[in-house]
Amino acid sequence: MDKRKAIEKIRKCLALSASANEHEAAAALRQARKLMEEYKVSDQDIDAIRADEAKARSGVTSQPARYETHLACVIADAFGCRSIFVAGWAARRAEWRFIGCGASPEIAQYAFTVLLRQLKRSRQEYIKTGLKRCKVATKTRRADLFCEGWVLAAVDHLAALVPAEEETRAMDAYIAIHYPSTSTLASRNRNTGRTLSDREVGDRQGGPAAGPAGRAA
To answer: CA-CA distances (angstroms) from residue 116 to 59, 70, 182?
Structure first.
C-alpha cells in the first residue's frame, strides 16, 4: 500500500471514529493512528488529499501582464479555488495552477483557457484595426489597457465563491505540501506611473465592448 492509499484508508478510519458505537469508534481511531505512524502521514497530508489541481497554459514564459493575473485570480475566486503561477523556462510557456476540491479546478482551468484565448484574439484584432499606425512599444502598452478593460467586463458578473472550511483547509494543506516556497506574484504593468491620455483611456474603455459581455449585448 502506497502513501496515498494509506491516507485514503486513514480518512475512512477517521470517519468511522465518529461512530455512535464507542468500541467501533475507538478501534477505528487506533487503526488510523497506527497507519499514520507506519506511513509517516501527518494531519496536513490527510487534509491535502481532498484537494487537487488543474493546469492552464499562460500567455507568457515568465512574468504575466496585470490583465492575465486579474483574469486568473477572479476565475479562481469564482469557483472557490486558489491560483498559483509557475514560470516556464527557455521557450516553454508558464502555467497557472488552479487548486481546489472536487470538479472546481477543472472548471476553473477550462474557463480561464477559453477566456484567455478569446482575449488574445480580441487583442490582435484591436491592434490590427485600432493601433496599426502606432510604434511597436506603444501598440503593446495601449493593447494592455484594452485587455484590462476587456477582463474587467468579462468577469464583472462573477461573484467569489466562499469555500467551506474543510475545503479551505484542504487547499492550504495542498499548497503547503506541493508549493512550499510560493511568493507574491509581481505582474507586469507597462503603464505604471503614467498619466493616461484621452486615447489611452479610450483603449481601456474599448475593451468591454469587444469582450464576451459586449458581443452578447
So the answer is: 8, 11, 24
How far apart, in Å, are the Cα atoms of 38 and each of 7, 15, 35, 48? 11, 19, 5, 19
Q: How confident is the model at residue 1 (pLDDT cuts 50, 70, 90)?
A: confident
- Cα–Cα distance for residue pair 13/55, rounded to 1 Å: 32
Which residue bears the cell 488574445? 120
- Here the cell at position 97 is 495552477
Q: What is the pLDDT of residues 131-184, one digit of tens each?
A: 988 999 999 999 999 999 999 998 888 888 999 999 999 999 999 999 999 999
pLDDT at 137 (0 to 100): 93
Based on its alpha-carbon atoms, the radius of gyration of the chain, rounded to whole angstroms, reads: 23
The number of beta carbons lying within 10 Å of the beta carbon of residue 123 is 21
Outline where the chain has alpha helix (H): 3-16, 22-38, 43-48, 66-78, 104-130, 136-154, 165-178, 198-210, 212-216
- Which tens digits make up the pLDDT trace of 58-95? 989 989 999 999 999 999 999 999 999 999 887 788 99
Q: Which helix (H) or strand (E) holds 180?
A: none
Question: DSSP letters along 24-82, please?
Answer: HHHHHHHHHHHHHHHTT--HHHHHHTTEEEEEEE-SSSS--BHHHHHHHHHHHHHTT-E
